[in-house]
Amino acid sequence: MSTQTAPQTTVSSAQAAQAAQATRPAHRTISAEELRALLGETLHTEVVEYFVRQTGETPAEVERQVLECLRYLYLISSHRTELSGLFLPVEQHIDEIWHYLILQTREYRALCEERLPGGFFIEHRSIGYEAYQQEPGRERSIEEALRWIPLYCWEFGPFDEGALPHWTIVRFLHERMRMPLSDIADLQPENAR
Predict the structure, then answer these.
(1) Could you tell me if 94 and 65 are in contact, meaning their C-beta atoms sit under 8 angstroms apart?
(2) What's the pLDDT score for residue 138?
(3) Dist. CA 66–CA 58, nearest whole Å
(4) DSSP 127
(5) Where are the alpha helices (DSSP H) in 114-190?
(6) CB atoms within 10 A of CB 95
(7) Which of its termini does the chain have fewer beta carbons within 10 Å around, N or C?
(8) Of 61, 32, 63, nearest in space to 45 by CA
(9) Which are the contacts of 48, defined by CB distance < 8 A and separation ≥ 6?
(10) How far is CA 48 from CA 101, 113, 138, in A?
(11) Do 120 and 80 contact (CB within 8 A), yes or no?
């Protein structure tokens, strides 16, 4: 089951978001180690150990889940204007890690307000993917994906096979639509075409 997780912020116009994306200069991508450092070694270890015990998954699998959760939070924080109110479909396990982080209130507040680039508290809101599909329609879903997928690739580099289990739309594009990961990485916001 997928879930939407979007911060509660003022919604900006799609044109402003697209213009911001189109004018971005090249930059260095954010590494897994940098994201892990944002969380801190103690909390990162605690989260991984908790979910290994809860799910029976390997530490490597859980570490990847934590990484993708941190990437999600980094995107929301770094691109508040562009992503405000968007549906970024992540799988349930990413949402559960986010829930766990939120319960560590002091550490979560520090992560959001002091370590992530936006410096604001990221509020939680979930909606099942099926419910979301009924609300905005296919065209809006596509438009929203074309706004956040390029931002993910901008910040972290192209999606790899390890990211697919965590990002619903990307997995759909790759597995169902037979889109190579390189083509997904080349997606541009609608106005950039």
Answers:
(1) yes
(2) 65
(3) 12
(4) -
(5) 129-134, 138-156, 168-171, 181-185
(6) 19
(7) C
(8) 63
(9) 59, 62, 63, 66
(10) 11, 23, 35
(11) yes
Q: Which amino acid is at 158?
A: P
The helix or strand, by DSSP H or E, that contains position 3, with its residue range, turns out to be strand 2-3
pLDDT tens for the chain, 193 residues: list them. 444 444 333 333 344 444 444 555 566 899 999 999 999 999 999 999 999 999 999 999 999 999 999 999 999 999 999 888 787 888 999 999 999 999 999 999 999 999 999 999 999 866 555 554 555 566 777 788 888 999 999 999 999 999 999 998 899 999 999 999 999 999 987 555 4
Looking at residue 90, what DSSP letter applies? E
Residue type, 133: Q
| Residue carrying the six token digits 């619903």 | 168
Structure tokens at 8: 């509660």
Where do runs of H (alpha helix) occur along the chain? 14-22, 32-39, 41-55, 59-78, 80-83, 92-103, 105-110, 129-134, 138-156, 168-171, 181-185
Which amino acid would we find at residue 91? Answer: E
- What is the maximum alpha-carbon separation in the chain? 47
- The residue assigned the tokens 């599909």 is 133
